[in-house]
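User: Here's a structure from my thesis project, written as structure tokens. My advisor, Dr. K., wants to see whether a designed sequence matches the one we expressed. Can you design one independently, without my sequence as a hint?
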């Protein structure tokens, strides 16, 4: 009876001491390794932070009113609806004084899915980051697009906008949020409060502008699921109202942080997704040539 137990103990020790390379690859490793889109009909599978993308479309690296930035990341991919939205918004941006169009940051990987760095969302091709930096020219080389940086709009840790904020930023965000394709726009709290204070006309678009940490070098646009995308999980509609009181509460907490709750549970480390955690369609997305 002791010999089988000894063998079992040995096998258990080998499993526990196995190198990480023997472990199941993470979803971000699998999707990050794909340099091209799947040869499938465009479709988002799953939710913004837990899914993948079939048939991704590339935002051209340079267009008449935009440039995609950080090309080495290969994250200028999205659903066709997202590409069309970016092109439309960039044409509006080009009408603003001092703006030639848009500098576009991260969208999605060629097949979506979890990214190795930078984002929990951007997984189904319906998210895009728009730089706050007004483009003075749209002839940046690939190398320049790696080296140039956007500019921060925040002051006092995000409680207020700084002197770089302009009426053009307000107008650009209003145009984006007023588009029926848009579900949410994430930006730092001080910017939302500034827009609430400055808007004198229709305020309905403000409900889509949501305060979130960071997001002072860029704003994050999230589109709704395309019509007919039955395997895409939409985000809940924003709460009723313009959301200005909520944004002001964020600002108040930045300026006067509440004392920490001694009984608050410690946050659990997030487990890395593996392929089995994602929608079943993601297997075919990865296997597609």
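Assistant: Designed independently from the structure alone:
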């Amino acid at each position: 009876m002791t010999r089988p137990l000894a063998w079992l103990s040995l096998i258990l020790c080998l499993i526990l001491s196995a190198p990480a390379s023997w472990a199941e690859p993470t979803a971000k490793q699998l999707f990050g390794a794909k340099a091209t889109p799947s040869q499938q009909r465009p479709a988002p599978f799953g939710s913004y932070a837990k899914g993948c993308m079939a048939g991704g479309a590339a935002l051209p690296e340079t267009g008449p009113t935009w440039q995609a930035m950080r090309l080495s990341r290969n994250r200028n991919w999205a659903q066709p609806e997202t590409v069309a939205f970016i092109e439309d918004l960039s044409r509006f941006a080009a009408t603003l004084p001092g703006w030639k169009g848009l500098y576009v940051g991260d969208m999605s990987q060629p097949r979506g899915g979890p990214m190795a760095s930078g984002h929990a969302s951007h997984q189904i091709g319906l998210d895009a980051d728009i730089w706050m930096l007004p483009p003075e020219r749209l002839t940046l080389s690939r190398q320049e697009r790696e080296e140039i940086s956007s500019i921060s709009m925040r002051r006092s840790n995000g409680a207020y906008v700084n002197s770089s904020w302009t009426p053009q930023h307000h107008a650009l965000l209003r145009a984006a949020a007023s588009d029926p394709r848009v579900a949410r726009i994430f930006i730092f709290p001080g910017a939302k409060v500034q827009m609430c204070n400055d808007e004198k006309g229709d305020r309905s678009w403000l409900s889509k502008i949501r305060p979130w940490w960071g997001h002072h070098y860029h704003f994050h646009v999230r589109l709704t699921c395309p019509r007919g995308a039955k395997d895409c999980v939409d985000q809940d509609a924003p709460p009723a109202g313009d959301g200005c009181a909520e944004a002001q509460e964020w600002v108040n907490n930045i300026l006067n942080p509440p004392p920490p709750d001694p009984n608050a549970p410690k946050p659990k480390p997030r487990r890395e997704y593996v392929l089995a955690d994602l929608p079943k369609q993601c297997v075919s997305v990865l296997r597609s040539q």
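When you compare it with your expressed construct, this may help: Residues 2-16 form the longest helix (15 residues).
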